[in-house]
Design a protein that fits this description.
Strand content: 25-35%
Shape: globular
Distance between the termini: 19 Å
Number of helices: 6
Helix content: 25-40%
Length: about 230
């Protein structure tokens, strides 16, 4: 399932992000790449331990905690601390698959990467290129979202970022270990959750069919959760 989580960050949050990122200490993005990814990765990245990365990462995690759409789709058990990258001057990221396991710096904590996420921080008109191309059963999907929107997709997907030929593309990216490892099962639960929410607004909280459907949702979650 590929999902656009709209308006994760509002205008005020984006203004703060841009102010911090304007003076941030960008470094070579290869420092956090695995062997395969390092061969294809050409971008800049905020050092994980920098004050800017810590401040903005905490703000992203707080926004994720407030997003009912993200919570319903990802069913997060653990979130790898958000990272930040920048593409400019023809930089790109060739086709790759994200590492299956990420280790949180300084902690030794392992996060299984069930889902990948990219939160766009630059408006699409401010740069040329920089599309995130995600390959799925329907072919390659080209993603270039408004600032503040986030794309959530299976970490098993082949994906790449096309060269940025004008301006700069700045984004936050991170991975999620879900309570439900299987993407197909998560998609079923997400569809059920959305249906339950629509029914609740149509028939009220105590309708017998809604109570039964909610029970089915939780019983499936109980069966599939790790």
């Amino acid at each position: 399932m590929i999902l656009n989580v709209e308006k994760l960050l509002d205008a005020a949050a984006l203004a703060r992000f841009r102010a911090v990122l304007a003076s941030a200490p960008w470094a070579d993005g290869k420092v956090t790449a695995g062997y395969q990814s390092a061969l294809a990765k050409r971008n800049l990245q905020l050092p994980e331990n920098s004050a800017a990365a810590r401040e903005l990462g905490a703000a992203v995690e707080a926004a994720l905690g407030r997003s009912l759409m993200f919570q319903a789709a990802a069913l997060p058990a653990r979130i790898f601390p958000p990272l930040f990258n920048r593409y400019e001057g023809g930089q790109d990221f060739g086709t790759h698959v994200d590492n299956a396991i990420r280790i949180v710096g300084g902690t030794g904590e392992r996060v299984r990467t069930d889902l990948s996420a990219t939160l766009f921080l630059t408006e699409p008109d401010d740069y040329d290129g920089g599309e995130l191309l995600i390959e799925d059963v329907h072919g390659a999907q080209s993603i270039k979202l408004p600032a503040g929107d986030m794309i959530l997709y299976p970490a098993t997907s082949l994906h790449r970022v096309t060269p940025v030929t004008r301006g700069a593309r700045i984004a936050s990216f991170f991975w999620v270990q879900s309570l439900v490892r299987d993407d197909g099962q998560r998609a079923i639960l997400f569809d059920m959750d959305m249906a339950i929410q629509r029914l609740r607004s149509d028939v009220g909280d105590d309708h017998p069919s809604l109570v039964a459907l909610t029970g089915c949702y939780h019983n499936l979650l109980r069966r599939w959760a790790l």
